[in-house]
Write a structure and sequence with these properties.
Layout: H1 3-26, H2 46-64, E1 74-79, E2 89-94, H3 95-123, E3 137-140, E4 143-146, H4 147-150
Antiparallel strand pairs: 1-2, 3-4
Helix pairs in contact: 2-3
Length: 151
């Protein structure tokens, strides 16, 4: 890994962690307190915070790895919420990632779902009520993947 990417990753992780700590300490939310400086840029939109939590989840899954020995070592993790119910998306995860980061993964799942529901409520979003089907995940060449991803 090259040095600029490591530095960028460290900065992004620090930002996500500070947001998480601020949210836990305030009991509300996903936005840090705004700066009193007139030169400060406006705080990021909530969608950007959701993406930061989603990025953290992806990083944890990648850090633990998607290695497997059989299909039981793999799963599709539901994320977010559709306005009519069900997951907004699924991501491939290994049982190893669940074992290693299970508590944080569950927290991130809950935060992302809550943010989706809050956004839908605030905007009055309505959907066509289609359900996103959970994809079949398999151990392909010792790596968890959907069949579509493996082809």
């Amino acid at each position: 890994m090259n040095r600029p990417l490591i530095v960028l990753s460290a900065v992004a992780l620090a930002a996500v962690l500070s947001i998480t700590v601020a949210a836990k300490n305030s009991g509300n939310a996903r936005e840090p307190a705004s700066s009193t400086s007139t030169n400060a840029s406006p705080p990021p939109r909530k969608k950007q915070y959701r993406e930061a939590y989603r990025d953290e989840l992806s990083r944890l899954i990648e850090e633990a790895g998607l290695t497997c020995k059989n299909d039981r070592d793999c799963d599709a993790l539901p994320l977010g919420a559709r306005s009519c119910g069900g997951a907004a998306e699924y991501t491939v995860i290994s049982q190893l990632a669940k074992a290693q980061f299970g508590e944080r993964i569950a927290e991130l799942q809950a935060i992302i779902e809550e943010m989706d529901r809050d956004q839908q409520k605030a905007s009055g979003t309505m959907g066509i009520c289609s359900v996103l089907e959970k994809p079949a995940v398999h151990c392909i060449k010792s790596r968890c993947a959907t069949k579509a991803a493996a082809n």
